[in-house]
Amino acid sequence: MERLIDSFAEGLIEKEQFASRIARTKIRIADLDTRIEADSGDVDHREHLQLATNRLRELAATIKPELASADWKRRREIIRTLVQRIDIDTEAIKIIFRVNHSTRGSGSDAIAITLPRPSKRFRYSAS
Asked: Model's pTM, two decimal places?
């Protein structure tokens, strides 16, 4: 844009050429700004997933020994403590944990895992 302005100021290009070139340049800059913003969102999303993965690994390492020796009632209590809610959709199952992103527990968002629904429908049959 600076070169265009300098070219116009020095009389190297006419006003009509300057106006059309500056308009195209502004459009290109806006497009590049949009791409940069989208790319930074991808980086934030990757960092979010990395934090969630690390927290789940820490959690698994902590509770694995207790889960192995726990009875059904105790396992249910642990799951109820860890899972905030489960959303079941026609295409996916989303599990939202109560564990925060931050190791200090100060993160505001819970960790969520989305799993694809099984393709087969199961029938319940009473025996």
From this structure: 0.41
Residue 55 falls in which region: left (phi positive, over 0), alpha (psi -120 to 50) or beta: alpha
Strands (E), 40-109: 83-88, 92-100
Question: Which amino acid is residue 114, in one-letter code?
Answer: T
Contacts of residue 95, Cβ cutoff 8 Å, sequence gap at least 6 = 83, 86, 112, 113, 114, 115
User: Mean pLDDT of residues grouped by 10 in the chain (127 residues)?
Assistant: 82 86 89 82 74 79 81 85 85 78 52 68 47
Q: Are 25 and 4 in contact (CB under 8 A)?
A: yes
Domain boundaries, the chain: 2-116
- For the record, the structure tokens of 104 come out as 């200090």
The strands making up 92-100's β-sheet, listed across from edge to edge, are 83-88, 92-100, 110-116
Task: Say if CB 95 and CB 115 are below 8 A apart.
Answer: yes
